[in-house]
Amino acid sequence: MRASDIKIEEIVKRDPKSGFPLFGAHRVMLSGINSLRRFGDDLNLALGYEKMRVILTRLGYENGLTTAMAIGEMYEFDTPLEWFKSVQQLLIMAGIVNPEFTTLNFDHDKKWLEFIILGHESFEAANYSANNPDRNPNPICNLLVGFLSGFASAVLGGDVLVRETGCMVQGKDICTFEGKSIAVDEADFITWQKQLTLEPLDEEITRLKAELESSREDLSRRDSEIRKLRKKVHSSETNHGIIHRSKSMSNVLDLALKVADTDVSVLIQGESGTGKELIARFIHKRSSRKEDPFLAINCAAMPDTLLESELFGHVKGAFTGAENDKKGLLIAAGKGTFFLDEVGEMPMDIQVKILRVLQEKEVRPLGGTKTQPVHARIIAATNRDLKTLIKSGNFREDLYYRLSVFPLTIEPLRRRREDILILARHFLAANRMEHPGFEPRTVRFLEKYSWPGNVRELQNCIEYASVMAGSKTIEPDHLPPAVIQESPSLFSSLSGDVPSLVEIEVRYIKWVLEQVKGNKNEASRILGIGAATLWRHLKKHPG
Ligand SMILES: [Zn+2]
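Above: the input record for the complex with zinc ion. Below: its predicted structure, written as tokens.
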């Protein structure tokens, strides 16, 4: 019996009893191609592409295997090769594909088989194309791959791996299937297993759950690392809300922390705009007084009589216009903190009264006879040199020693330049959340400027610049003129012209001479040239 002797009409019959179709002795079922399309689509939808591919391949494999066994039961083929070749007619009969062998090498004894089959009008490719106008990057004739693998494996008595190396859904003219026995090839065996091994869903879910759990643990570990790092960055750059990077500011804050929860008098010294009140508030917030008020008064900002009544309060009729009793701020501060800013500007007569408050812990309102206890802690600040004021008779020495038990000195911004950029960025972020930031040249200007108004001036400068720049990166032109003009940059004055090297030399020598007020010895020392050379130079370029 040869494969070409098979007659379809002879092998597909009707069961005389039940009327069902039979393939040899086996009952078969007719199924429309459309219903298989639905089957594939549903598998894809419910289980995903990979699972659908495996299930269809397994279905094909089972089909191929049983078909091969059935035909093998029906006929005694001349050779195993003829048996295998019968697959051609059977595939057509089954309505799966019209196959055409281009290569077929078979050695049954050595369990060796290889073939290439061209599949005309694969039902799977046709099904796919009916649904999808677009090409698919991958071959999709899975049932057919399985069928060929199952059929060949049954005939050979060993595993045969089949691959679809090209498919019509990829835009090829025809589907191509390559098969070979895998008795020796380990890698092929793994591929074959992958094609046909279906992992039970519950096992897969358990495995995925475990993977998810371990990813979660990983994630939470990373989360806590990020939190730690953030904390580190935060504490190094803001140190409890006060932005700085300089050692000198760190020292001030360390000292402030130490003194915070004591009742020791603190005197904060520093130029205007360095943030003295910020430090006072910092101390207040870290003291046990933090739940009580923080009240402040600026001694330079109000007339003497008003300052007195604000500090100590008054009784009704104490002076013209005193229509009601008024509680002084020292009392109103309760058990909190009272901040006495610009204490160097305080008139002498009020200085006496403040000294008494510090000594006796009590206050008598203007026009009053009864004293009231003062519980607030007093923190004073000044931008003046109080010792000089003492010498000139404008500040009481005894008050100075009372106030400055624990002195804190905030350096001006120009002496802690490493704070400038992070402060600038902080102010910019406070003004505009999503701002691209500063151009490098702008940073150079900011870091070189002397900042006589300190942090407050820097804050104003950044507000000005952010208005000027809008949503653009801040360029030097956006900075206030004062910041640019002061720049000591050698070339900043050259932006308009481009002088020659000789010209630069002449200008530079003149500039140095100006700096040293015409002292030629000093100038030649700075320039690193001999006095005679400088003299020759000046003779050559007079004026
Ligand atoms: Zn195909």
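Notes for the reader.
The domain at 497-540 is CATH 1.10.10.60 (Arc Repressor Mutant, subunit A).
The radius of gyration is 47 Å.
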